[in-house]
Design brief:
Chain lengths: 253, 720
């Protein structure tokens, strides 16, 4: 039995009625279907992935900007309804999905311009296609040496984390961290941190765990959540903070 | 792949993710379409812009509208960021207190604002021209009238929906059915609901300790429950936490209501949670403080799930019983935790404990402006039950106003305190200081008018109320005081109109209901008084002023019935008055007004010795309490101890020679003693005093009634 009725499909007729000025149809398309929320979450996810370290601190701003952007796109579509003629709902969803990343890029550029976190803005501007953001890998960093350096910093960080009190007292989490480091492959230590913070490389990690028979769905997800929380708490300690700042500084260079 | 699956694949998110707004699942209907929300957003921005001198935009919401209000809030915030405002978000899931934002912030968004005990003190210190707070909170908890800063209300989300209760009930039954065979999930669901019903998601590690389960074993169980939408993970970044919640607070509360049908919820249900809290772990310390804060603010919820088994008295007992642990928790926290613990303890009248925590906070952080300010507020509160603290309160206010020279609210609070301590001139000076900072501060004008009404200086009060009325004619404080002024002037109809107007804006306004009840009683409209006061009590079952007013009403109504010869009816009223006063005594055992009122009833019921014992005790603490001393004198007279009686009356007159009621009582006693000429002399003295005083009309009427009774008694005696 479905406990919480939430997503309801809408049809292209609903979209057409909405563009033809029916508020009721607008509710069906944007609200009852959770399309509005889904778009907001999509933006959050894509921005979060790109900015997995830099974003801490401005994350909430991005979330609210996402809400406002989806609202504006909704209003603008209504205003230019005559120009829009969608064949099916996939065309409609595709249009919204394509429009929003560009809009949010402009929006964030405008809004974050005055904040202290301008590095975050720069990295968004550098990337034209914000809808397919990934963490930087070897191809986006000029020198191999830099890659090695960030891996070294991330490695030191995870070594210290592994030896911290909070992890030494929890056997399950200690083993989980060791497992993640083992299966991180080319992603290395920085890949483990990115995976824990924003689920980056989720599929790779999961598949690698399956390969060595270390994947149980519930254990896998819940241990990772707990480990993420432990890492967050480690970053709040004096020692962890130092590592966090090193990672952040390197990332911006 | 069927059509719905294809449709779903076009979204990048799953259903569980969509339940989350601002980091936690919030389940409920979306009550408005997007275009309406955009209109609301624009209206809200207009309201924000109209608060040019700073203030708050209050957004009360019904429990079914929380999801909608959060979406609206995010859209509004996105636009405000677009308009170049600097917005600060309070992390409502984790922190049990409000912390002042950075100086560049000009919009402070606080969700569930009424839950924070330090809301008022933060607002009073933060609001200035250009700073706006956006405060949301459940409608029934928002005591908007206690907020002293200027505000606008945005009430589009406060319309309740009964249908939603049924939807929650269905979801609850579905979950309970699903977990009935799974013992650990069932227990986890129960414990999480016990806390989330108060808006407190549980830290995962604490949950595993409460359930006595290894975290490594428990976490996959919670994960399975999460996949099935039974329990939910909450993972805020700041401070980093891993919490477990239900699909919404409204759901958890529904579960508590469901449980209470079989067995009422009491504080015993929470002992196992507090027992395992480790004060060194921030998350766990916060859980304790959040629970206690939420209990204190949610009076109505407490009564709805536990009848009388979860009232302030029980919370106080619970704190006392667990004091060693709670003290450690409070002492381990930062300065603001100290402040909030101190505020909570003061609310349950544990003033010495509250003071101890505050002092500890001040030892660690002597210059903290909030702790210094609250020290003065706390001592002023403490003075209500312990006059020995008056001197300390004077000093604390002097120190606090010295540190925060331009805090208008502090000067005003100092004025209030001086006025209540009988130092009217001192109070005038403080109010003057406050008005020098902001001549148009409506609350200071109201506070000064209030003082002048208390002192019977009606002309002065009227002057301030006129000034305040020009500034904001809709202000509830001013409406209430205007009603009081009319009442004192004997303009019953005008007073009633003012207070009824307040009820149109807020049907549960405690001041309005209490004042209407009081006026109806003074006019002998017993039934009407009862209706108003019962209504006030339904909305706030622990309002001590209302309980006292009902106690007085029942006693006076009983006396009236007794005069009419209806002995049985009178007995019933006295017994009902006694019951309600006992409840008041349980809530505030040291409140002198409650003790005097109980003693008055004791005297009527013939328990003179008990009354004398109580009154002598209270007079040791409060030697200047005229009501207690007058009543004690009458008790002595009842026992024929006239010398003791005269001693008490003389003590009253040595402080205030113009106390008319003493002369009337002396006259009455002398008639009984058949000393008519002396009685007449006392009556003449009372007349002279009455002519020299400008008494408010209700008091004048009461003195006339008393005089009339005495004259009747005198005639009767003379005839005999």
């Amino acid at each position: 039995m479905r406990k919480y009725a939430i997503k309801n499909p809408f049809t292209i007729d609903d979209v057409k009625k909405w563009l033809g000025c029916s508020r009721e149809a607008g509710t069906v398309v944007w609200i009852n279907s959770q399309f509005f929320q889904a778009m907001v979450k999509t933006i959050q996810k894509s921005v979060l992935k790109k900015e997995y370290i830099a974003i801490i601190g401005t994350y909430k701003d991005i979330e609210n900007i996402a809400y406002d952007t989806v609202t504006s796109v909704h209003m603008e579509m209504k205003q230019k309804a005559k120009e829009l003629n969608f064949e099916n709902i996939y065309a409609f969803i595709g249009y919204v999905k394509k429009t929003i990343p560009f809009r949010i890029k402009d929006h964030i550029k405008k809004i974050l311009n005055d904040t202290s976190n301008t590095n975050s803005l720069e990295s968004i501007n550098d990337d034209e296609n914000t809808s397919t953001m990934d963490i930087p890998d070897e191809t986006s960093i000029d020198k191999q040496q830099e890659v090695n350096d960030i891996q070294k910093i991330a490695d030191d960080c995870l070594n210290d984390f592994e030896n911290s009190n909070q992890l030494q007292s929890t056997k399950g989490l200690l083993n989980r961290l060791r497992l993640l480091r083992k299966i991180s492959g080319d992603r290395g230590a920085i890949g483990v941190i990115a995976f824990l913070l924003v689920n980056e490389g989720l599929t790779d990690f999961r598949e690698n765990a399956k390969k060595i028979n270390q994947y149980d769905k519930d254990v896998w997800s819940s241990y990772n959540r707990r480990l993420k929380n432990s890492l967050g708490n480690f970053f709040e300690t004096q020692r962890g903070r130092k590592h966090f700042l090193n990672l952040k500084e390197f990332y911006y260079e | 792949m069927n059509k719905i699956d294809e449709f779903d694949n076009n979204f990048d998110t799953d259903e569980v993710e969509l339940l989350y707004i601002n980091d936690r699942p919030v389940w409920g209907p979306d009550i408005y379409d997007l275009e309406t929300v955009v209109e609301f957003r624009n209206n809200a921005i207009e309201k924000i812009n109209s608060l040019i001198n700073g203030g708050a935009l209050i957004i009360p919401f019904a429990k079914n509208a929380e999801r909608s209000v959060l979406i609206f809030l995010n859209i509004l915030t996105g636009k405000l960021l677009d308009l170049k405002y600097k917005v600060h978000y309070d992390q409502f899931l984790c922190y049990p207190y409000l912390n002042k934002p950075l100086p560049e912030i000009n919009i402070w968004r606080i969700h569930h604002a009424p839950r924070y005990k330090n809301l008022n003190i933060m607002m009073e210190n933060w609001i200035k021209p250009g700073s706006i707070a956006i405060l949301t909170g459940l409608d029934e908890l928002f005591d908007k009238d206690l907020l002293k800063i200027p505000f606008n209300i945005f009430s589009e989300f406060s319309i309740p929906n009964v249908q939603f209760d049924q939807e929650i009930e269905n979801a609850l039954m579905s979950v309970l059915n699903e977990i009935k065979e799974n013992n650990i999930t069932k227990k986890a669901h129960h414990v999480v609901c016990l806390c989330d019903g108060w808006g407190v998601p549980l830290p995962f590690d604490l949950l595993s300790k409460i359930l006595d389960q290894d975290p490594d074993t428990l976490s996959p169980v919670i994960e399975r429950a999460y996949q099935k939408e039974i329990l939910f993970w909450i993972e805020p970044d700041r401070p980093p936490s891993l919490l477990v919640s239900n699909v919404s607070e409204a759901y958890a509360l529904q579960y508590l209501k469901f449980l209470s049908k079989e067995k009422l919820i009491s504080l015993n249900d929470y002992i196992s949670i507090f027992e395992v809290i480790d004060c060194k772990i921030q998350d766990e310390r916060y859980t304790a403080l959040k629970l206690i804060q939420s209990w204190l603010v949610n009076t109505k919820i407490r009564y709805s799930i536990s009848s009388e088994k979860f009232c302030i008295t029980q919370i106080k007992e619970f704190i006392l019983k667990n004091w060693n642990l709670l003290k450690k928790i409070a002492f381990s926290g930062n300065s603001i935790e100290h402040l909030v613990w101190s505020q909570c303890l003061a609310q349950v009248n544990m003033f010495n404990y509250s003071y101890e925590i505050l002092e500890s906070g001040l030892n660690n952080d002597p210059k903290n402006i909030f702790l210094n300010q609250y020290k003065a507020h706390l001592l002023a509160l403490w003075c209500r039950v312990n006059p020995a603290k008056i001197k300390n309160a004077h000093t604390a206010f002097a120190e606090a106003t010295n540190i925060c020279k331009n805090n208008i609210w502090l000067w005003q609070a100092r004025g209030d305190f001086e006025a209540k301590s009988g130092n009217r001139m001192g109070a005038e000076t403080c109010f003057k200081k406050a008005l020098e900072i902001d001549p148009k501060n409506i609350h200071t004008l109201a506070a000064r008018a209030d003082m002048n009404l208390d002192y019977g200086l009606l002309d002065r009060a009227e002057l301030d109320l006129k000034k305040a009325d020009i500034i904001d004619s809709q202000n509830m404080y001013i409406k209430h005081l205007k009603g009081r002024l009319f009442f004192y002037q004997g303009k019953w109809h005008d007073a009633e109109q003012e207070w009824e107007k307040m009820l149109i804006s807020n049907k549960q306004h405690p001041f309005a209901l209490q004042s209407l009840g009081n006026m109806a009683r003074e006019r002998g409209l017993w039934d009407q008084a009862q209706v108003y006061l019962n209504k006030a009590l339904t909305f706030d079952p622990e309002n001590i002023a209302v309980l006292l007013e009902i106690g007085v009403l029942k006693r006076k109504w009983g006396q009236f019935e007794l005069d009419m010869g209806n002995v049985q009816k009178a007995k019933e009223f006295f017994s009902s008055s006694f019951k309600i006063l006992q409840k008041a005594k349980m809530l505030e055992p040291e409140n002198p007004k409650v003790i005097v009122e109980i003693s008055s009833l004791d005297r009527l019921l013939g328990n003179i010795e008990t009354a004398i014992e109580r009154l002598e005790k209270i007079l040791l603490v409060w030697p200047n309490n005229i009501h207690a001393r007058h009543l004690l004198a009458l008790c002595f007279a009842d026992q024929g101890l006239y010398i003791e009686m005269e001693t008490q009356f003389k003590k009253i007159l040595s402080n205030n020679k113009k106390n008319i009621l003493v002369y009337y009582s002396l006259a009455r006693i002398n008639i009984i003693k058949n000393n008519i000429s002396r009685a007449k002399e006392y009556l003449r003295q009372a007349d002279r005093i009455e002519q020299s005083l400008n008494l408010p009309i209700p008091k004048k009427i009461n003195t006339l009634i008393e005089k009339n009774r005495i004259l009747k008694l005198m005639n009767k005696n003379e005839e005999l």
